[in-house]
Amino acid sequence: MRRLLPAVLREEVQFRRLFLGQALSMLGDRITFVALPFAVLAIGGSAGDVGLVIAAATLPFALFTLVGGVWADRLPRHRVMLASDVVRCAAQGLAAAGLLAGEIAVWQLAVLQLVFGTADAFFAPAITGLVPLTVPAGRIQEATALRALVQSASMVAGPSLAGVLIALGGPGWALALDAASFAVSAAFLSRLVPRAVAPRAGGTSFAAQLREGFAEVRARSWVLACLGGMAAYHVVVLPAVFVLGPVLAEREYDGASSWALVTAVFGVGAIAGDVIALRWRPPRPLLVAGAALVVGSCQALIVGSGLAIGAIAVLEGVTGVGVSLFFTLWETTLQEQIPERAISRVSSYDYLCSIGLMPVGLALAGPAADAFGIHATLHAMTAIGLPVALAVLAVPAVRALRRPAVAPGTA
Fold first, then answer.
1. C-beta of residue 296 within 8 angstroms of C-beta of residue 248
2. Alpha-carbon distance values, 306 to 10, 256, 379 (Å)
3. Same-domain check for residues 241 and 180
């Protein structure tokens, strides 16, 4: 059985500890993503309250992710992640206890999600910088792809498990499982011994290190280009899937069942992309990633195409492959090309331009569709998102950047 595991899990003890702790945590996050709206409704909240609580969980990425990147480069990253897990476990545990006891108000749930999101904003840049310290240089992509594979699988399995938990015991039990997943992650992190690194040089003040992080971003045209592409993808393209897709399915197809088919096939495509990334190491990873982003940015066009729902699902499956390849190769490139002393600060801009900005697009998509029509809005999303992705691919450094010549399995 052990021989069936990917080599990076069999042979890299520290990464195995990191991976095992994160696998359950990722599943718990996907369960909570589905359960949280039902938790708000279960305590008498309105649709507006649902938006408030979800915004409370995501807003901290816009406010604190750059701060989290600095601290992850100043302190041992696994310790930052351990502290984040403890805080997130407590926040979700208190929310679950309040829901199960029937003694929690919407504002209290929102405050707990604000605490949760703030801890999450510190965790994300830290793990991007920690992975290269748990594997040899030649296995960074394999490790990143394996984490992405679990995340994609959680996107498929998480909603189903959330539905079972909500049906059997209510949303409180779903949040309780999420809290337990952070406890498991913390237990594995407490045993983690990452590779030692040289003392980090540079400015010692927080402000100086923040400026150094931005200088690392500004010095690389390929980083700036990809950050712009990700901002457009999360603000312009993804709302077509998260907001307008379900509305269109309700109006023109068979409602939830149609949209469930589309999202399920997208998830299968994402898993396929992760499997490809486990084995394929293109010599010019950003060239492939840029082409994959172009494919992924076609989603608004596909959703609003008017094709049969089966055809839309198949095409969304293709975009799922592209989205997975883009994010895996992009993250791997950051980990291979950015100096270890600055990787978390640089990756914090990644999270700011993606998760941090996404609520802007989610908030604007609905009103735009109401004002201009859903198909016109989807066409406008395509007219913005697709050219931006093509512009990323047109940047010479994106096409030319080669990965370091390191043999797999070497340090």
1. no
2. 47, 17, 12
3. no
Longest dimension (CA), the chain: 59
Identify the domain containing residue 133 by its residue range: 1-140+154-193
Number of Cβ within 10 Å of residue 167's Cβ equals 8
Nearest Cα residue to 140 out of 129, 151, 150, 126: 129
- The verdict on pTM exceeding 0.70 is yes
Q: Which residue shows structure tokens 């486990």?
A: 278
Q: Is residue 95 one of the residues assigned to a domain? A: yes
Name the residue with tokens 């830290």.
126
List the pLDDT tens digit at each of the 411 positions of the chain.
Answer: 566 677 788 888 999 999 998 888 888 888 888 788 888 888 888 767 877 888 888 889 889 999 999 999 999 999 999 999 999 999 999 999 999 998 899 999 999 999 999 999 999 999 999 999 999 988 999 999 999 998 888 887 887 788 888 888 888 998 999 999 999 999 999 999 998 776 554 557 888 999 999 999 999 999 999 999 999 999 999 888 888 888 888 888 887 778 888 888 998 999 999 999 998 999 999 999 999 999 999 999 999 999 999 999 999 999 999 999 999 999 999 999 999 989 999 999 999 999 889 888 888 888 888 889 989 999 999 999 999 999 999 999 999 999 886 544 444
- What is the four-CA torsion angle of 252, 254, 256, 260, rounded to 10 degrees? -100
Q: Which of 252, 106, 280, 87 minimizes the C-alpha distance to 185? A: 87
Please, where are the H alpha helices in 170-244? 171-190, 206-218, 221-232, 238-239
Q: Is residue 189 located within the same domain as residue 217?
A: no
Tell me the angle at which helices 221-232 and 343-351 cross, rounded to the nearest 10 degrees: 30
Query: Do residues 390 and 292 share a domain?
Result: yes
Please report where in the chains the tokens 């293109």 appear, as a residue: 282
The total number of structural domains that make up the chain: 2
CA distances from 87 to 117, 123, 309, 334 (A): 10, 11, 42, 28
Reference 6, options 150, 124, 192; nearest CA is 150
Q: Could you tell me the CATH number of the domain that includes residue 67?
A: 1.20.1250.20
Sign of the alpha-carbon torsion through 203, 341, 21, 286: positive
Same domain, 173 and 234: no
Helix, strand, coil percentages in the chain from 3-state DSSP, rounded to 5 = 85, 0, 15
